[in-house]
Structures are given as C-alpha cells and as structure tokens.
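Hi support team,

I submitted a single chain yesterday and got back a structure, but I'm not sure I'm reading the token output correctly. Could someone confirm the output below corresponds to the sequence I sent? I've pasted both exactly as they appear in my results page.

Thanks,
R.
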Amino acid sequence: MECRKIKYSDHAFMQMFYRNISFEVVEDVLRNGITIEEYPDDNPYPSRLLFGFVKNRPIHMVVAFEENKKTCIIVTAYQPDEKWWTSNFKTRKK
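Hi R., thanks for writing in. Yes, this is the structure output for that exact sequence:
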C-alpha cells in the first residue's frame, strides 16, 4: 500500500481524539505496521486491519485504500483489548 496522501474519516478523527491517538502514531503504524486482516469486499474501497506497537502501546487501525489516487483513508484507530485479541494482538480470540 503506497500512500501518497492520508485522509481521516470523521469517525477516525473523533475516535483518535477520544482514545488519545495522535496523527504521529497513525503515520507510524502506516509506515511500520503489519496487515493482520484484509477486507477486499469493503465499499467504497478495499480495506485492511493494520497492527503496530508505538512506544510500547499496541495500536490497530482500519485503513481503506483508494488505488487510483494512492490515498489511504483512516477509518478508525484503537488500542486492542485482550478480551477480544490474543496476547500478541494479531489474532482474534474464538
């Protein structure tokens, strides 16, 4: 995913503020995070769930990608809860 531009959904912007996740953290996960789930059928653009650690804090981000404009659209960002994720935060609990 080659992002030339980053856009933030209104939902992402509000959740980042509420969850104390900065733009710098989002950019770090975009650069250095790994894809742990893919959602190719999402509309209007395919998206994926990225995971990264930033300053020892686990972060998940849903990012849609507008291919023709090389734009990453941040859908949401959050700190994963061990209630729903395994201890490595990469796998959902069943």
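A quick pointer for reading it: The first helix runs from residue 10 to 19. Let us know if anything else looks off.

Best,
Support desk
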